[in-house]
Predict the structure.
Amino acid sequence: MKKLVLILFGFLICFVFTIKGKDVKIPQDNLVLWYKQPASNWMTSALPIGNGRIGAMIFGGVEQEHIQFNDKSLWTGSPTVRGAFQNFGDIYIQFKNQSAFTDYVRYLNIEDAISGVNYKSEGVNYSREYLASYPDDIIVAHFSADKKEKISFDIQLEGAHNEKTIVNGNELSISGKLTLLSHSATLKILNDGGSVSVENNSISVNHANEVTILLIAGTNYDPSSLDYLTKKDWKKELESAKNNAVAKTYQQLKKDHIADYQTLF
């Protein structure tokens, strides 16, 4: 009996080290929600990130990632007409040659407000991280692998109100107007290695070492104004937020986000 217990204990130790090893990469902080499969439903299983103004829901699909995003001020209506909150848009990312995968983990780390996806495909360990930064006022996604030139995907930005997607180099953007409010969003693709090209209304990234994606979104809403419209150059402010974020590395963006979040947490 004692020998059997020792054997079972040894097996348990091996199992724990396998789970906590490099292949699976489960975060070890105390407050982590994690799952063994992608989300299938927005309301019940996608994982949320947000900075108080803009937010996103992360589905975590391997072959196709889906990110739904919003801004708390995107409403229909006017000073005289009751309105309703609106979805801003969706990001779809089609990853290449990753139909077969193992060791899948999708998580939300509440201690640092970072969501992520880890898995292995064809001998390569892939990692994705997502955060909504308050100090930089943007949403950030970062894709990496433990081997070079393995990040390849096509990315699309779709507005929820029939907006036309504009492609300009390594950027996708949408803009429009609802009953009263105008809105605009831009995706900026920053690749380390590999190539970036335009494919119809999407951007194609091939053989990058890692990729950082910046989402900048906003509206012209101002609650202090009598007509609810800002008198500031709100699009210029979005452009400044984008340029300030581009000037930082992903690690800097992540560090600033965590430092800001943990003062409140």
Q: What stands out?
A: Confidence is low (pLDDT under 50) at residues 1-22.
